[in-house]
Request: fold
Amino acid sequence: MRWRRSIRWINALLLIGTVGCRSAQVTYFGNAELQHYRDKMLAVEYPNVDQTTPQEVAYSQHPRTIKEPTDDEIWEMTLMQAVQTAVTNNKMIRTRANGPQMLANPTTSPSVYDPAIGETGFLFGNRGVEAALADFDAQLTASTQWGNNATIQNSFGTFQNNSDTGSFNSGLSKALATGGSFSVNHNWNYLSTNSPFVPVSSSYTGTLQAQFTQPLWAGAGVEYNRIAGPPRAGLGSITGVSQGVSIARINCDIDVADFELAVIQMVKDVEDLYWELYLAYRQYDAEVANRESVHRSWIEVKAKMDAGARGGSAADEAQARENYFDAQSRVEQTLSNIFITENQFRKELGLAVNDGKIIRPHDDPMEAEFVVQWESSVLDALTRRPELRRQKWQVKSLELQYKAAQNVANPQLNFVSSYQVNGFGSNLLSYTDSPNNSMYTSMGNTNLTGWTTGLQFAMPIGLRAARMQLHNIELQLVKSRAALAAQEQDINHDLAEAVQRIDAAYRIAQTQLDRKIAAVKRVEATMALYEVGARDEQNQGVTLDLVLRAQAANAAAEIAYFTALINYNKAITEFHWRRGMLLEVDGIHVAEGDWDAAAKEDALKRAWERSYGRPAEYLETQPEEFGSGVPSPKTDLYPGLPQGAEVHSISDPTGSPTLAPTLPAPAAEPAGKARIE
Reply:
């Protein structure tokens, strides 16, 4: 019954403690005011980020408006100057499409840093070349522990056993490119005890061991390890065949293609805005000329009305005045359009809102007919479009992963071996020659050695996971090839549409030019008849309304002509874009920046190391080439082309494509190459 009484006392104490905690008041020493209490968990806060404001923002002047006209300096800018300014100023790649995205989430917007960020990636599934090469770095481990233990031994009488212990463990391991591993381990243990059953009271025992493991079936070979990388601890049953150096390098090439796509879009937007600004100026000039013509007509009609002459009625004067203010409103609208377009153009170029200069395009649009060589253009599009190059890298990556997946869809058969030297001594290191006096001496002077060799075999029955991985990658490869074919078909259609746009824009521009010439003659003839007061065939006088309509039609015809001309030049830009030659036409080449002195010195050192290397006589040391510095020629597009011939976009005077022999393939890059060239 005692234990029941004890339980009741314990429950009573717990109840008292609980009630006391609920009603307890915390008392502090001293006096203070409540300052740190908040009745909300979340609120809008602003980070303390100290960054200098760009000079383009800090020194920007008031934007141009119609209300406050300024006498700004004219900046006559050529198209090449505009492209160069945009390429130089924009570290973050600006396009008209990603403007809201850059403002809302600039970290996902393209930039000049993206290829380098991709190359230095280190996370699993998104690693750069250096991170993939790090899997083959040698790993050094070392640890030491010391201790003391005192116990009572109840054997053949009781006595207190005191023992001092110590241990040292070290190892150096290296993953090999063949899939194997080599390690050297050195361990020793120290024991000092007063036990009467130990012959040597203080002793050191140690080993120096070398181990070598080489896969013979699944996971074996340089090709597999270049694609999939060596096995990684901590991933469980996840095999993974996309973490090797080759796949990492392909991912870097994909990042370069994405960067090039962003640059191409930026350059196209710059050229389009350049011609749109040119059109805005032309529209303004046409509306100003129309306003001046309408104003002269109004002055003449008002003078006739004041003099009471023929053709000076109040209705005519009111109509002329109304047309003048309508023309003035169109002038103000086109002037505002100049300011808005020029501001958009400045934003695309990375310039300030207003720096005291107003940009005016210096180059005139192309008026001559642009002749397209269709076969050569198709070849250029199918070999130079970055979208196709990016997708081909995806296909090549999946092809390599498929090879690696075929490798691991086999049982594991590993060759294992080890060799070790053992040592024993009362001291760790001693220079005396007495037996068992020094552990390291015994390791060098005796035959205390051991070795092992054998095979290890393992496989899951059915290899279901490996076969599912192989089948999945095979399906991805089929889809990627189908996507590549669809892309080529879409590009062919887009190129055809660009050619059609050029032809239509040129014909429309010619027609609008004829309309403009006819409109000028109409104004001249109508004004002449109006001034002499002549009558037409219906015996009706040429009224002021016909003159004003002729003037408005002349302004509309001029604007329509320049609009068609600008559309023609924008169609040519789109054709170069669809052909994949826009950067080449503008003299832009995507390349990595200069290395610093340390990087150049390191690259030179590695080059000398490879130059002095001796090729293995029975091994294939040069990996299979899967990339080239020049586009792959398309020899299956038009029947009749010589095998191995490459069609270039430059045509001879007769218009036929120029045939040139295929350039020799460059030397294969080494497996350790980790930079974009």
